[in-house]
Design goal:
By secondary structure, the chain is of the alpha/beta class. It contains 26 helices and 17 strands.
Length: 626
Amino acid sequence: MRVLLLLAPMTQLNAPYPATAFLTGFLRSRGVDCAQADLAIALVSRLFSREGVARMLAELPAEGHPAVEHVSAHAERFRSTIEPVIRFLQGRDPTLALRIASRDFLPEGPRFDALRNSGADEEELLHWSFGSLGVQDKAKYLATLYLEDLADAVREGIDPHFELSRYAEKIALSAPSFDPLDAALRAPPTLVDRMLDECVAEALASAQPDLVGITAPFPGNVYGAFRIAQSIRRHRPGTRIAFGGGYANTELRDLEEPRVFDYFDFVTLDAGEPAMLALLEHLEGRRPAAALCKTFVRENGRVVFHNNAALPALPHSATGTPTYDGLAMERYLSVFDILNPMHRIWSDGRWNKLMAAHGCYWSKCSFCDTRLEYIERYSAAPVDLLVDRMEAMIAETGQTGFHLVDEAAPPAVLKKMAERLLARGVTATWWGNIRFDTFFTAHVCRLLADAGCVAVTGGLEVAEDRLLALMQKGVSVAQVARVTRNFTEAGIMVHAYLMYGFPTQTVQETVNALELVRQLFEAGCLQSAYWHRFALTVHSPAYEQREALGLKIHPLPWGGFAKNEVPFDDPTGVDHDALGAGLRKALYNFMHGIGVDDPDVRRWFDIRVPRATIPARFIAQALADG
């Protein structure tokens, strides 16, 4: 039986999302004839080509949004520059950087307004934003703005769902009813939809599959996944189709909507390995439908969930080595669009994706989906096996960079992995998500750096000790300061995930959190950070504790489709959204060294807030005490 695994648009442009690489490696290790394709990069490659731009221009209205008018007015320049720019971003024509950086080569549209309208010299603004950029980096940034102008024109003039990193996200975001998605799928196809259909036809012709598995990790992939299924039904009606991935795992656990199965035959939950093995046995006639593993099907017009409890989850050591064979790695683009240094690492460069352990070794944070299998079930692979996998992936891809996609990479495993990399003489550059665990001493951090670790990301979250204890984060601000210093002094960049709007968080605590973050930047403990707005999900301990937290829940009317995020009223009555703009503005400046020496963080807010009550030397004292 031939299997084809597809990534649905849109995801990041610099590397394939790891789901199909992981599952393809596993299925091949079990003797399954499995192919894979990333239809996100296939769609981008088709759209951003000379022919694609010509088709785009033929459908754009004459006037409307500034991006539409700009692309229409510079039609020939876009046709002539698009393929050279794509080759440059793919790393195949680096000398073009000189022409792009000259500012005379590209037709610069509305996305360049931040440079033109700043009131400062554009070169000075670029230097202030990015430091002393080399020509390659500057050209990547300008080329990314150019692509965003084109993407804006597509969204405003052709397909309102289209964006470079997501596709129709709003339709699938907090969608208790299937009606909006169903209506969009029944609407006449746009140019983007037709191009996606062409990509599907090519993938089917190449693989000739009996079963297609489509993964949608995020809401911004769901519409694309359903469009792909629609195309498969038309081009190859006898092929069976399965849907899975992060969106199903979090949003569709209570699925009751039978119309989903007009598009898919199966919807699977949690780890794909046991579900796919059971599904293949079923399609080969060796397993009845009732013995499927964590799989929804439609029977007699009703949605039924089958879960053979006799099929245990596989240990992480048995999942096989991820493979990128079949994915067009030469198509991926290194883009440079956001000033956040961590996002730069994320979006620029072709990282191999690897997981040191399945699940989270802590698994207590009250804001997290700790009830779900991808967090709750912890399983680490033997360290020598991890390094074996790294060497195999380097041999296959020619790339020595690795992004460890763990929920929180286990410290002891990372230490042993670093020791094995050094002992075996493996050259690798790697980064990943961690907890700011006290295990990361100065000695351990230096060891990780020697073995190739260049960056870590970790959750400081609310940056306030009362709330950190309330959410069972298992760290304190002082502990985070000492651990981040250890990483920084070892030459490893540190990015902190920050959170605001956690239940019971007061305005004073939010201001205090910003002051603590300022002190961490001032002390050199952080180089990058990002504020996230807290979201209450039905699979989190916070939702289970909603009464104790004093939350007033506003449940969405249930329509049988998706269920995850829940609206609520905080008992404090704080307008957290009004504080968000000031928090983000402060971080933007802190990352560029501006305002880090000013303890009056009230300056960053457009609304009246109290002065911070944190001691001016709180972080300095915590570091001295450590």
